[in-house]
Write a structure and sequence with these properties.
Blueprint lengths: L5 E7 L7 H14 L8 E7 L13 H10 L1
Parallel strand pairs: 1-2
Length: 72
Amino acid sequence: MNEKNLTVKYGRVSSAAQSLVLQLSAAKRYLEAQGLTGNEDFVIELCDHDVSATKLKMKERPKLMELIGHCV
């Protein structure tokens, strides 16, 4: 079986004052610092827009649930 490496970058903002661009840029820098860029078979960016982490349960955050689905 051919095993693939999957990298998932996840961002979540609950207001317009927050920036997904900054979050995903930070994720990219982290992956680069860990030597995890350039050799992935797949890279996925998942973003939840206008989603409160304190008001919504995890199961109510669609992209977070998609991320978890990639882990199992």
